[in-house]
Amino acid sequence: MPRAVSPIRIELTPDERDELVSLARGQALPHRLVVRAKVILSLADGRSVRGTAHDLVLKRDTVTRWGERFVKKRLRGLDDLARSGRPAHFPPCDRNADRQARLRAA
Description:
Elements: H1 14-25, H2 31-44, H3 49-56, H4 60-73, H5 97-105
Helix pairs in contact: 1-2, 2-3, 2-4, 3-4
């Protein structure tokens, strides 16, 4: 059976490849950034959208979205877009109920 070809064509410069490899190996980086770098590297290596999604346990729509954003914006496309709304007042990792109660009372 012939190998499926991705409809997204990504040609990386050596600098972009080095940066993406560094991001994909990053252990102190946000997981979402590591996964996005792996998606782009996989597509640049000629893997299909379906194969990339299967390997990285993602939906095909997600792989397509990041591939297309990379084609349009290059490395800047891996960053999160600005979101509307007010920033969270309480950080989700702070589970100290006493501190939160004092902040609410203030």
